[in-house]
């Protein structure tokens, strides 16, 4: 199939989904009320609860969920061929991710801006509280570690991206003060900031002295580095420490000072980036050289495809963002459709171009198969293949390849950083909720909870274990990420289903994707935990086995609970005698 035709079909289906399906869900199922007083107004505090323009909030929400994952997952999943990856991205976005992100946002807004974790506690009862929080903490901890790992490695591989990324921070702070203290409109300052960033990217890619190359400063790849770690490991360690300091500050500041303006800049950056890639696709009209389907012998695509592509099709982390930060900033309830569903569509559009960039990058089928020779090989080369493929598309707009690679890496790092500090903020919320639940006042303090989140994340990413030695700890629990992520999405859809049932409304739109996700997640977990698929290929890892077994048992328990709840005539008994509104 022609690459342009493939993109056009995908975009057309996304447009139909937002125009018709999301409108049906908003009006007939969720029945949004424009006069409902949202938590942003009811509990306005200027820190977390801040009424926000829907375009600004969409920028925050979109860039928080659209990190590196909707790029990395699809770039890996094309190992099984581009057709199954495209189908899951397009159909999963329209019928699963859109409803999930939209629904968790509305459910949280209708319940004082509480996180999906808190609402799930009320659903599954006292016995499941600790275990569910354990799963959420593990998920956000893995997000923190893996995204920090990705950013640090991109800074090492693309040193020209460092200055453009860091220059965004003071620009965002300036915009925050201009908008909220001087009532300046955010659009023009954000576009100026974006122009400054890309100007810095162009100059950095052309002039070596503007490239913050820590490896070169320590004598190159063969350099001794610090404490005998070697130049690359030392550079990685330094970047992780810098990132942890940054996320500590970013996740404790009021959202209007850095989070919102930076995310608004990134939303424009994403639009510009997508525009460059899709226009580049139009002008270059590249040939799809990857196979439509790829017969492999090492790893079956079913069910792993639906776990490998989480963000970009459906992701439980999105529910944490929707109910953790976005619900506290929603100005009007009717804005939820624009923020939640369209945010999911935006991520689907990003995942689609990620697939196209990879499957058109290679000169022929043989070159693709040589790089994607195994699932392990595709996991290691996916992100690099996307950056190179995206740069190749950008050259269709007469952008030099070095500049294009720098701009693409800046985009990827910016999104990963957005997700990283949002995830740390969410982890702080969860730790504070534990403090309230178990009467531990110290955990309720913002800086104590943030310190725990940051130290735990740094410790995980720096654990000197795994196949690549020092600094590979970010992937220590990676096999659990996809399964626990999709399990959270299934639980969120379950919550929405129960809420809709209580209100006497149809919940088919949520129960069907919930059953599908639970089935795929349990199947994948069974393979990974009890058949020891892939986990023991290199060396036994008891940590993965124990955590995976616990999550597997919990997933079974959730399904049993779901049957009980949906079959019950009095749902309030299963909600801690406190009925969800």
TrEMBL record:
Transmembrane segments: 85-109, 130-152, 158-180, 187-207, 227-249, 270-288, 300-321, 341-362, 397-420, 447-464, 476-500, 507-530, 542-567
InterPro entries: CstA (IPR051605), CstA_N (IPR003706)
A Pfam cross-reference name: CstA
Membrane-topology descriptor: Multi-pass membrane protein
Main location: membrane
Stretch forming the signal peptide: none
Alphabetic keyword roster: Cell membrane, Membrane, Transmembrane, Transmembrane helix
Domain CstA N-terminal span(s) in chain numbering: 2-363, 377-524
Localisation: Cell membrane
Family listed: Belongs to the peptide transporter carbon starvation (CstA) (TC 2.A.114) family.
Name of this chain's protein: Carbon starvation protein A
Native source organism of the sequence: Planomicrobium okeanokoites (Planococcus okeanokoites)
């Amino acid at each position: 199939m022609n690459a342009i035709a493939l993109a056009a079909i995908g975009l057309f289906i996304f447009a139909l989904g937002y125009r018709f399906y999301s409108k049906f869900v908003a009006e007939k199922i969720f029945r949004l009320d424009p006069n409902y007083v949202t938590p942003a107004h009811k509990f306005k505090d200027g820190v977390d609860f801040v009424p926000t323009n829907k375009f600004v909030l969409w920028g925050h929400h979109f860039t928080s969920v659209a990190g590196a994952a909707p790029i990395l997952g699809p770039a890996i999943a094309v190992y099984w061929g581009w057709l199954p990856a495209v189908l899951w991205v397009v159909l999963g976005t329209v019928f699963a991710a859109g409803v999930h992100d939209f629904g968790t946002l509305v459910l949280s807004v209708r319940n004082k801006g509480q996180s999906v974790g808190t609402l799930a506690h009320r659903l599954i009862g006292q016995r499941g509280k600790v275990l569910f929080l354990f799963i959420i903490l593990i998920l956000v901890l893995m997000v923190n570690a893996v995204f920090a790992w990705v950013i640090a490695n991109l800074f090492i591989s693309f040193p020209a991206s460092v200055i453009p990324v860091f220059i965004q921070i003071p620009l965002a702070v300036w915009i925050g003060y201009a908008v909220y203290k001087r009532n300046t409109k955010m659009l023009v300052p954000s576009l100026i900031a974006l122009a400054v960033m890309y100007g810095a990217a162009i100059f950095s890619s052309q002039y070596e002295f503007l490239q913050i190359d820590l490896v070169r400063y320590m004598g190159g790849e063969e350099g001794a580095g610090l404490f005998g770690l070697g130049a690359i490991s030392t550079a990685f360690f330094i970047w992780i420490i810098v990132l942890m300091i940054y996320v500590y500050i970013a996740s404790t500041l009021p959202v209007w000072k850095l989070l919102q303006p930076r995310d608004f800049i990134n939303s424009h950056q994403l639009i510009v980036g997508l525009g460059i890639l899709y226009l580049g696709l139009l002008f270059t009209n590249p040939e799809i050289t990857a196979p439509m389907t790829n017969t492999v012998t090492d790893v079956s695509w079913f069910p792993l495809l639906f776990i490998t592509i989480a963000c970009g099709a459906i992701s439980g982390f999105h529910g944490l963002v929707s109910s953790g930060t976005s619900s506290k900033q929603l100005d009007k309830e009717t804005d939820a459709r624009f923020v939640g569903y369209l945010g999911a569509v935006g991520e689907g559009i990003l995942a689609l171009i990620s697939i196209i960039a990879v499957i058109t990058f290679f000169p022929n089928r043989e070159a693709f198969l040589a790089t994607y020779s195994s699932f392990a090989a595709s996991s290691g080369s996916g992100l690099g293949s996307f950056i190179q493929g995206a740069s190749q598309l950008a050259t269709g707009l007469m952008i030099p390849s070095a500049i294009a690679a720098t701009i693409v890496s800046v985009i990827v790092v910016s999104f990963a950083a957005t997700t990283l500090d949002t995830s740390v903020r969410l982890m702080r919320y969860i730790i504070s909720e534990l403090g309230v639940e178990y009467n531990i006042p110290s955990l309720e303090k913002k800086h104590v909870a943030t310190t725990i989140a940051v130290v735990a994340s740094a410790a995980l990413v720096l654990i000197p274990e795994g196949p690549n030695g020092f600094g590979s700890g970010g992937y220590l629990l990676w096999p659990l990420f996809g399964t626990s992520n999709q399990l959270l999405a299934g639980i969120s859809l379950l919550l929405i289903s129960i809420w809709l049932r209580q209100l006497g409304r149809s919940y088919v739109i949520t129960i069907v994707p919930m059953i599908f996700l639970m089935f795929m997640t349990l199947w994948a977990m069974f393979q990974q935990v009890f058949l020891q698929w892939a986990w023991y290929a290199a060396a036994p890892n008891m940590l993965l086995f124990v955590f995976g077994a616990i999550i597997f048992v919990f997933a079974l328990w959730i399904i049993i609970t779901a049957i009980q709840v949906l079959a019950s005539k009095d749902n309030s008994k299963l909600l801690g005698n406190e009925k969800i509104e």
